[in-house]
Design brief:
The protein is mostly helical. It is built from two helices and no strands.
Length: 65
């Protein structure tokens, strides 16, 4: 991880990958935790979106439904 460059620097690929992996793991943990709550799928997606900070420009297929 190159901490000398900002996370969104074009050449800081390693740090970007680590952040994407961390978001994916966090998403799985959130899905598991929300699976036991009796709320609608829309509410679950809304809560997940608030918990995971998605950067601007994230493709629609990567955003929670």
């Amino acid at each position: 991880m190159d901490l000398s460059q900002p996370a969104d620097a074009p050449r800081n690929v390693t740090r970007k990958r680590q952040q994407l992996k961390a978001r994916a793991v966090a998403g799985r943990h959130i899905d598991k935790a929300l699976s036991t709550t009796p709320v609608s799928e829309e509410a679950k997606a809304s809560r997940k979106a608030k918990l995971i900070d998605l950067p601007a420009g994230t493709p629609a297929k990567r955003r929670p439904a």
